[in-house]
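Bug #77: duplicate submission created two jobs. Keeping one. Sequence:
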Amino acid sequence: MEKYGVIILGAGNSSRLGQPKQLLMYKGKTLICQMAEEAIAAVGSPVVLVTGANAPQILEKLCGFAIEIVENEQWSEGMGSSISTGMKAIAKHSGLTGVIIMVCDQPFVNAALLQQLIDQQTIAGKGIIASTYDNTAGTPVLFSNTYFDALTALEGQQGAKKILQQSTDDLALVPFPLGALDIDTAEDYQRLLTGQVAN
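Kept job's structure:
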């Protein structure tokens, strides 16, 4: 039976926002709790959350979900180091068909979208299934287990985008127009709260 894991990247320090974006409230929940809930609804387990900056505050607010938490002490080096940290944790679970990598600041990600990525892999038979918005391919993105070594080898600022660009012949896409909204600034957050971007 096919089995998928999820890695939630939540290690950044939200420098442009001025407060931890992981703890912003939306629809009565922190973004990090919302992402954890959707990931569990989609795959069950394993779900691994990678923390870094503000780890103690984030751990306090995790709503008691059954997820694994790993801290990336090198979080300041960039997203690649967080993906690698998450992969090392999730690799302890044998028999995974693939892993979905998601970030904590795309508030419209839900279990249905994550399931769509999984379904699309079955349909398309491709090793990478990415969400597409704003003419780009991005997160959440599913990688089959053939990419686990490459993901684990990432470091520094080098995110998974590099793997996507090198593997276009093994890539299928799922439209996710609302993926274009991620919360980087206070203005982004206000747009979300005032419903200027509706789901």
